[in-house]
Amino acid sequence: MADVKPATDERFLIYAGSENGGAMARRIKARLDAEKARADAAEAELESLADEFAQECDSRQAAEKLAKSATRSAEIEKGLRGEMQAAMDAAEKRVVELKATREWQPIEEYPPPEDERVCLSDGQYIVHGDIFTGKWRDDVGRALRPQPTHWQSLPDPPTSEPEEPKSSLPIHPGKNPNLPEGYSTGMDC
Q1: Is the distance from CB of 123 to CB of 147 less than 8 angstroms?
Q2: Where are the domains of the chain?
Q3: Whole-structure pTM value
Q4: Which stretch of DSSP H or E encloses residue 138?
Q5: 105-153 — its CATH code?
């Protein structure tokens, strides 16, 4: 608020110089000083309220930004949960598929493809072989006796270079004394 300027009117100055005028001038000056003090206090209060309002506006803007951020975070989380659930569902489906390919299938109910080498078992021994002209044979072409009752697919071959054997024991190819006559000493499944 602007400062109150003293009156410069000559009549006022003449009257203010008189005895009655001096008292009145002091009262007027006291009132003006009181009004100025109230105006200064009101101005300070107004500035304080303006500062509070600005802080409130900043707080509201910050709260709105935070709310938008929280909403966006919730949307991202929801999307990620959906993606994770889809990935988990796909993984579970793949596990079921892999288990189905790794389970022993009865030859009578589900015969293996004729042009595919598979793991074969009679319930006691496991070998790999195939069927040729209606007869089961091992990996070198010998007929299997006894006839296998179950089969499963061979796993896919490795795609990387083989690692060095971790065992220090030598690997000796040769006849396996645990297999009966007619069974292959090739790779067991």
Answers
A1: no
A2: 10-100, 105-153
A3: 0.35
A4: strand 135-138
A5: 2.30.30
